[in-house]
Amino acid sequence: MGHLEEALASIESQYYPNLEVVFSDDGSTDGMLERIREFAAASRFEVKLLHHQHTSLAGNWNNCVANARGVYIKFLFQDDLMRPNCISRMMELALRDPDIALVFSPREIVFEGVKDEASPAWKIAQSCAVLHSGWSDLRVIQDGAALLSDPALLDGVWNKIGEPSIVLLQRQALVDVGGFDPNLCQLIDLDMWYRLMAVGKVGFVDEALSSFRIHDKQLSVDNANSGKARNDSMLFAKKVIHSPFFDILHPFSKKRFLKASRPPAAFKVQRRRLKRWLAKRVLGR
Fold it and tell me: How is domain 74-274 classified at the CATH fold level?
């Protein structure tokens, strides 16, 4: 539980004083709950431990949001870390404009594994090392619609905001757009960022305030290996095409989402072969 210990220490180190810490457990069996209870008893912050039946990753996140009392939500996964000034710096910016729906910043990548081109984890680490530089015109505070209409929206890595541990969210805005989508398994966060950008402003703190850990055992690596990530991309693209903000997108982005929403060419060939085979069976050929 070494990663958990580091994450707990980073919570306790926060300069921002007015925190409610919410843990959502969906069936842990590795002794983690006992350590969290010890943390709760000793922490200077109010700590709440929730228990619920496992449904999905998005379901767990939504459970946290539903039971949190704060005006803002700052996720922290057990693999990740926050610098002591993380929440205070993000809150400082968020409070400058009530229309800011999310605040994000750069983060440090902590890679644990073999730096081998054949390693999916290493490929992920290389591709997402620096995210914010992919925007054409990123500002400290700007309308989310301006980022959605960026012609570079889908250049390189799609998620140019970052992971949930990197973002501060306005709770009411998150609830108003419907919460995290349990039908997705990989792009749950990006789907939420897009929906929030469509209705609110985005704040950017140009300072690394957190650390994101990448290793071979994390869910994103499993999704890449199993093919779930590809299916998720197609489902997400379909959502975007039918969303109210599709018209905001640059024509380049619209074209790429339309392409991403269609099955891969190999799948289309297999589907045509299956149709021909079924036709022969029906006609008795």
Answer: Spore Coat Polysaccharide Biosynthesis Protein SpsA; Chain A (3.90.550)
